[in-house]
Amino acid sequence: MPIKAQAVRKKTDTKTLSVNFSQIKSMISSLTFAKKVLVGLAILFVFYAISDIVSVDADAHSQAPEVLVNQSQLISIPDIPLMSFAESGLVGSEQLVEKTVVVKKGQTLSGIFTDLGLSQGLLLKIAHFNEDSKKLIKVMPGNALHFTLTPDGDLTQLRYQASVFEELIIHNDMEQLSTELITHDQQIRLVSVQGSISNSLFGAGKAAGLSDNMVMKLANIFSWDIDFVLEIRSGDSFNLIYEKIYKDGEYLTEGKILAASFTNQGTKYEAVFYEHEDGDGSYYAADGRAMKKAFLRAPLNFSYISSSFNPKRLHPVTRRVKAHRGIDYAAPTGTPVFAAGGGRVTEAAYNKYNGNYVFVKHPNGITTKYLHFSKRAVKKGQRVKQGQTIGYVGATGMVTGAHLHYEFIYNGVHRNPRTVSLPKSKPLPSDVMPEFITYSSPLLTRLSDLETDLIAQN
Ligand SMILES: [Zn+2]
To answer: What pLDDT, on a 0 to 100 scale, did the predictor assign at position 230?
Structure first.
């Protein structure tokens, strides 16, 4: 149910054209009579066309800001191009040339300009022209730049989708730059969803109208508390409030989860997205402690494990000499395995018992071990971040099927990683807590209400 809508700014900004008369005059004097007649006609046409553009421009300024100004009205490209027409003195059907460059990795704006035969001076001029034109510098691989060139290869227009909601148009008319920034209307609607698991998390997500991507986002929030591979049970439930983003009234994409709760085997976890100071928000529990902790509950990507995959079916360990002191995650070969926490790789090797294996040493006397990889993704001595892929599930060593054997060792003693109590994360600074409580309370209340609704329905 949508409970909030935010409308945001919109602006269009245009600057007028200018004509260099002396240039045209000197050009005319150097021509034959027949050409002069043609140029005369051309000039008349140019003035007609310019007056047309200026009048459209004036209309654009008088329009109410709610009405989106179509850029094609502002920059009507005539069938016979104005610039080449006036400059060359030829009456012809020469067309402006449209060139689209999709920026490749490692490619620079400077290189793109050179490739198109455009000067570095022009690029510098654009880059420093105004605040809007500076957005061009932020171009990223995969972005498209749309160039409009005269038949002589001069730039007349450059269009660039600066962000999902902003299109930048740079005009270069008679060496005079102007910019236009078209800002599309953005609305964010908040959607509340509840779900209950009978078979799988993805199945429950689908039944609740969530995309697989949103289910992943939900699981990621709780991945330090809940083992989504082994611990999910029928009857587990979740509630969430997330954003749906609309562009000019049309649904565009999902946004972030603002608040969520997950009840796993009777234990309820809650999280609220909160931005404080640095602007980079993250998830916090109701008591203001960060959801992110030193160790992930499950060191592998649960989304690779299909819902029909029964972890109890496979018991891969047979006749091991040592007592079994880890957890086995039955998973398809190739499933990425993550470092459960940040640390340094102390072993990355192969032997006939462990197959391909990796050991990671973490702060505070904790070591994690990962066995039977099909392939290792790290080297001995390497630093790894939490969540970094260190290898892929396989069936190497003494095993009967593909699985990950995972061990958690604290001060030399094997611990059950599923039940070991780990240090709590730090809470938000006390001076921020009042604001956090004020912000998070209504969201958490709404989550609880959803839960009540669900119980009432059943
Ligand atoms: Zn094992």
So the answer is: 86
Q: Tokens 């160790």 map to which residue?
A: 295
Separation of CA 295 and ligand 1 centre (Å)? 20
| Structure confidence at residue 57 (pLDDT) | 36
- With a cut of 50, say whether residue 98 has pLDDT above it: yes
Neighbours of 157 (CB within 10 A): 19
Homologous superfamily (CATH) for 302-415: Glucose Permease (Domain IIA) (2.70.70.10)
Protein residues placing their CB within 5 Å of the ion ligand 1: 317, 326, 328, 405
Using the mean position of ligand 1's atoms as its centre, give its distance from the Cα of residue 326 in Å.
5
pLDDT one-digit tens code per residue, 140-192? 899 999 999 999 899 999 999 988 889 999 999 888 999 999 998 889 999 99
Residue 404 CA to ligand 1 centre (angstroms) = 7
Å from CA of 413 to ligand 1 middle: 16
Cα(370) to ligand 1 centroid in Å equals 9
* Domains 21-183 and 302-415 equal at CATH topology level: no
Of the pLDDT bands very low, low, confident and very high (cuts 50, 70, 90), residue 22 is very low
User: Which class is 187-293+428-457 in CATH?
Assistant: alpha beta
Dist. CA 215 → ligand 1 center (Å): 28
The matching CATH number, chosen from 3.10.450.350, 3.40.250.10, 2.60.40.1930, 3.65.10.10, for 21-183 is 3.10.450.350
| pLDDT given for residue 418 in this prediction | 74
Distance CA 31, CA 91 (A): 14
Instruction: Give residue 372 CA to ligand 1 midpoint distance, Å.
Output: 9
Q: 319 CA to middle of ligand 1, Å?
A: 11
| 108 CA distance to ligand 1 middle (Å) | 50
